[in-house]
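User:
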Amino acid sequence: MRNYKFLIIHILFLGLSHFSVKGQTKNLAKIDKELFDKTASPGNSNLSKVLKSYNYSWTGKSQNSSESMPLAGGVLGLNVWVQGNDLMFLIGSPNSMDEKGMQVKLGLMRLHFSPAIFDREFRQELNLLRSEMVISGKTASGIPVSVKLWCVVNQSVIHVEMVSGRPIEVFTSYETWSKYESKFDNGKLQWVHRLAEVNARRQNDIKQQGMEEFTKTVPDPLSGLTIGGCVIAPNMEVVGTGVGVFNNLPTKTNTIKTSKPVKKIDICIALRMEQDSSLEEWGNQLTKTATIAVKMVKQDKKNTLAWWWDFWNRSYICINPGAAATDSAWQVGRNYQLFRYQLAANRNGRTMTLFNGGVFTCTENPDGKMWDMCQFMAQNQRLVYWPLLKSGDFDLLQVGLDFYKNGTEINRLHTKKFWGIDGVAYPEPYSVFGLDALGTDKDGRNSTKHLKYHYTSGMEFALMMLETERFTGRDITGYIPSAEGIISYYDQFYQKEEMKKLGKPLDENGKLVIYPSDACEPFHGCTNNTDVICGLWALSKGLLDLPAQYLTPQRRSYYREFQKRIPPIIISEVDGHKIIAPAKSYEWVFYNDNMDFPNMYVCFPFNYYFLGRDSNGIQLASNTWDYGAIRPKSQKQSQCWYQSAINLARMGRTTDAQKYIMQKFLHPSLRFPAFWVNPGFCHAPDTDHGGAGMIGLQEMLMQCDDKRILIGAAWPAEWDCHFKLNAPYQTTVEGRVKNSKVVITQVLPASRRADIEIIPLKQGNEVPLAGD
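Assistant: Predicted structure:
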């Protein structure tokens, strides 16, 4: 009842006049603390205080968009910065795509103020708890002004709320360097771009990949897709059109302004990205959204705050809470939270959060990305979604899993047509149509030499689908065909290949002969490669572990028999040390400075070996890390998609894991510390870099092996910590590390406490690792 009382107070407060900017900020902070401390879990009543310490701010203006700050909400991601006297923000969304299926911005908004409001005492701050951006300053004469931006979580709506001590003029411009067309309508500013009624790339890809007879089955997210929005605020008048420049790109501008100076204003920006039947229908629906948004500000704010409070209470890892902001370990914990916040910009989008910048690209032409021709490159995309299991962000995770699920049927038809089997093989470069983003050859394989038999990453998404059931207990019936289809592909295709070669489907030991195959990107012409073997074990085990209703007795019997056909992991020797080989044999290696380490898939993602089991698999894995790389400087890097920190955590190598995780989270970035930059790898801000870092930090703290929950497996004793993480079987574990000891404060359900094993902590070493 008291929570409700506080919420009523909060909503009433939002409706009151703004007595002063300073008083407004103070009162909001007090109400936020009271509300969050009442709704947060019992084991961590100080989370709001810790989150406040993670709020990121700066007091100097930005030079350009690369010095922007992210603001997330629903399916929107804004890059916000102040340049001169202009408050500017790019609008991004996973639902905004061009004719080729590339995610593009909806444009640039520019707010100009007269008189200038950022001449003195400038400050820009991201409030994580509320997901608000507050930008404040004073005019030359000392008049205080505050501008607050926030996004509605269940509608594509942005609010820009200004409060000033004296009336000022506000100019609002929409700027585009792209194909959007703008117009004025009764004081509103509207812009739109409608894609072709029949998407040409989809037609070309279907034809090039020999799938014309299945055209109706190929997903079609682009035909007639209409993207745009409108700006609406009280008493606005037209200024006019013009031209400008943004990041050296020529722009078209449309500007409206307040008809007279105002002390406060809420500029509402409504957006729509849908495949409406016509431009007229799109416009009608956008008008409805804008009209409702203006009327429902209080309710939308209430719903938005409730969602963010829930989001932050799902999970957290806070390192050295209360330490100075210069403390490197504290920065690791802060950057973990900042990056997780960025992932929340895709709560229910129609496409995945991209690995190469997500919705927050902000350099040069922000519509362009490195490796965008690969679209949703699975080896990179997987790292954006694995951490969402332990963070409890199952709504964000569903977006990625559904994206794969929606392409399952077309890939099943592709497999049947080209290889004559009933199975599923997701291409590594995965397109918005569920097809191969780079095209295929006459045999239906990827057109590039090193990706023809690389289907391991699709296994990971199928495994995440199965893990969703273990973590949440939700119905995953719609996901089952993915995992079953992948196993069917490997079982049927390779039996068929062996039959063609030797007249029998299995080897002399009754095992599959997996040839030809690719071990990730480096090893090709493989026989029985380790990553595939581990993946098949993980998927078949995941299916057999499902509750009874998902599989018939006959299907369970099939998977038990299939496991007998999976070939063994190959053990070899280097300088007297036993290691895991990448494959039984391989014919050639794709050498470069950007190489996977598929031997290590025994740890992550496929859990073939695990700490604390009776076998010596972890020692084998550790030997493999030390001696099994064929090009160590390429295979043991820390930046971008490299999962080195994850593997080291899985092996319980605390010192090495700590060094690598610090390299991850303290890596060079744009002005915002979680906008990581990796020249030559993925586009800034590097999203799979952050995903790999999240997974690594989670695994250092908590690992889950069937029902076992290992706490502290690779956590450095000198790092204090407050944490809450999600585990399988609808479990949450809360605790802290203090004085080199782990204390569990709450486990839900309580029965799962018996499954927790606390690993004695070891001292780490905070000296960053310099190379391999």
